[in-house]
Structures are given as C-alpha cells and as structure tokens.
UniProtKB/TrEMBL annotation:
GO terms for biological process: detoxification of zinc ion; intracellular zinc ion homeostasis. Pfam families: ZT_dimer. The lineage of its organism: Eukaryota, Metazoa, Chordata, Craniata, Vertebrata. Keywords: Membrane, Transmembrane, Transmembrane helix, Zinc. This is Solute carrier family 30 member 1. Residues 65-122 form the Cation efflux protein cytoplasmic domain. The keyword Transmembrane helix applies.
Length: 131
C-alpha cells in the first residue's frame, strides 16, 4: 500500500514530536473518491444530454429530416404535368419541428407557373414541409 510506504518513509526522517503535528487525512481510498465521483457525474451528464446534442448537431449540419423521403418527394414533383425538370431540391430542419424546403423547378410552359407553384406548395405541405 503506497500510503503506508509514504508514512513509513516520513517517520524515518522525523522524530516523534514532528510526526504528532502532521494531521492524518484518513484512509488512502478517500483520495480517489472525488475523481471517481467526477467521472460518474460526467458519464451521467453525457448520457442524459446526448440526444439533445445529436438533434442540435443534425439541425446545425442542415441534414434532411429522417421523416422526409427525399426520393419520393422528388418523384411527386416530377410527376406534375406542367413540370419539365426538378433541380436543386433541398430539405432541411430549421428548428424543432420547422422543416424548410426549396426547389428549382423548370416548367414546360411559363404561363402555368402559378398553378405549378400552388401544386408544389400543396405537395410540400402534405410532406410536412411548411416553408
């Protein structure tokens, strides 16, 4: 035991009156109690905050929310009669449950733009994308 060795080495160098003046700290395991409790607290904090950290990181990285199927959404947009092509389809989560989407749509006829925009807005709304 290294505590006993330290006390033995100290007592060899000091006389009895000097040894009486040194306060005894208690058992040696007490020295490891504070770091052990700190590690336990860190583990508890990491375990309880991990879901929030993960959600925040995914929002900051602007990933596609897991409830949105981007391929299905792309196909629905392409199936509209007036749509010729879909470019730059982006969907991300802005905060909490607010999901944002943008798309560059090429219409077959520019005169049908307002009808296409209304249909696209409805498709986005049905998918849970509200802006």
């Amino acid at each position: 035991d290294h505590c006993a060795e330290n006390i033995t080495q100290m007592s060899a160098r000091m006389n009895a009156t000097e040894l009486e003046k040194i306060p005894v700290a208690g058992p040696c395991w007490v020295l490891y109690l504070d770091p052990a409790l700190c590690l336990i607290m860190v583990c508890i904090l990491l375990y309880t905050t991990y879901p929030l950290l993960k959600e925040s990181a995914l929002i900051l990285l602007q990933t596609v929310p897991k409830q949105i199927d981007i391929r299905s959404l792309n196909e629905k947009l392409r199936k509209l009669e007036e749509v010729e092509a879909v470019h730059e389809l982006h969907v991300w989560q802005l905060a909490g449950s607010r999901i944002i989407g943008t798309a560059h749509i090429k219409c077959k006829d520019p005169e049908t733009y307002m009808k296409v925009a209304k249909d696209i807005k409805e498709i986005f709304h049905n998918e849970g994308i509200h802006a």
